[in-house]
User: Which sequence fits this backbone?
């Protein structure tokens, strides 16, 4: 990739150095990647307002001493909640173009069963790793399932588990 404009879901943003902004983007064309918005934390930054977490923006990404955001324009804000962004950031592999996941990740409501299935963790064929019961949650860190009984005794923080609604 030298330069590309791609629709991107902004998953995370954090300070980098004196004035730069680092963003984790799930792009339609290039999968998940991390890029730097030079001077993105300055008040005058034209990029920062268009790199809000949970927004879909048209982002121009260039390879120039690392991966950089050259331009960004919000297409739609509030597509995903912060917790959904955190979960997506944790489960999506970097630089892997997973067909279909873009549509799932930016759908009006996110269907986690289908997202996890597309990533190789199909809850419909999964079992609680402790009792082989039906999965109620997917534990992100250990990448396994727990049933409602075995999940109930554990306190999970934001972005640590995906709650599953299995129908049929
Ligand atoms: Zn169980």
Assistant:
């Amino acid at each position: 990739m030298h330069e590309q404009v791609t629709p991107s879901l902004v998953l995370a943003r954090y300070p980098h150095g004196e004035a730069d902004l680092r963003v984790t983007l799930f792009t339609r064309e290039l999968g998940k990647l991390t890029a730097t918005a030079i001077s993105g934390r300055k008040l005058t930054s034209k990029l920062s307002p268009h790199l809000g977490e949970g927004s879909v923006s048209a982002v121009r990404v260039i390879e120039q001493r690392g991966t950089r955001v050259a331009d960004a324009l919000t297409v739609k804000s509030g597509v995903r909640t912060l917790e959904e962004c955190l979960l997506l950031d944790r489960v999506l592999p970097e630089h892997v173009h997973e067909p279909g996941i873009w549509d799932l990740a930016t759908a009006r409501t996110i269907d986690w069963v289908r997202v996890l299935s597309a990533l190789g963790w199909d809850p419909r064929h999964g079992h609680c790793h402790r009792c082989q019961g039906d999965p109620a949650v997917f534990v992100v860190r250990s990448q396994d399932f727990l049933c409602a009984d075995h999940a109930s005794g554990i306190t999970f923080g934001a972005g640590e588990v995906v709650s599953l609604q299995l129908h049929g």
